[in-house]
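Lecture 7 notes: from sequence to structure.

We start with a single chain of 305 residues. Read the sequence below before looking at the structure.
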Amino acid sequence: EMDVKEEVMETNQSLFSLEYDRNQLPDLLRIYYTRLFPYQMYYDWLCYDAESFSNREFSFTLENDIYVRYQSYDTREQMEEGIKKTKPVKIDIGAIFSHKPRDHTRVMPGNFKAERKELVFDIDMTDYDDIRTCCSDANICIKCWTFMTIAVKILDRALREDFGFNHLLWIYSGRRGVHCWVCDTKARDLSQEARIAIAEYLTLIKGGEQQVRKVNLKKPIHPSIMASVEIINEYFQDIVNEQGYLETQEQWRKVLQLIPLRSLREELDQEFSENKMKSSWQRWGRIENEIRKKKMDKYPCLIEE
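Now the structure, written as tokens:
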């Protein structure tokens, strides 16, 4: 009996060790889809009505990057059986089609088309690599999540208050970001043009890697942008200190580049080099005070930018 218990414990320790071994993936997926996957919650969420669920496409990524499209199910039990059988590495939830996706080869060309889909936003940590100093690429630490917190609050407010959406589902992506699914009926029925227009409304940063100033605001600043600035201000001091934006010459010069007045850039660079103030937050206060004193009419929103 002791031998059996020890063997079970060794197996559990092996399966759930912190060091991921890809050879364990089939066993882990089997356990996950048998014991942990929230089939009922999944079904309740996606089942706006019987037809919307049966006409929903599921796509699976299997081991060795095999991609399987046009999976669909009429009931929760069918979905559970299909997922347990295939044990996908990844599940993608597609659109609601005019016909059941599994029957797409039986439908006349042109008649099988996507009709509805939730409005989905993907916030990825790598999008912040330009302003993250603590990590980069797929690496994540606790400091990185301040950016995610701000992004979630800004987007949630805009979607609710500016567009009137109510049914928002926020989900950790499982890797390095967050997804927002807007599930209101009017969101699911949006045209592609309307979806693009919403995305453009929410986009402020423009320009490639070579462009220094990627945000250009004008007075009066749009109320939605000001609401976002207020959210950012709640966390701004923490971000400046945690990320050390003004700690080294290389870092503070990146920030000073955003100041269009050359004489002010040089003056601040000299002060920071002489270590007259050491903390990033003290240096930021100096930058902000000088910009306000100069009253640069051509750049009235420089601090907010």
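The CA atoms of residues 63 and 89 lie 6 Å apart. Keep this in mind for problem set 3.
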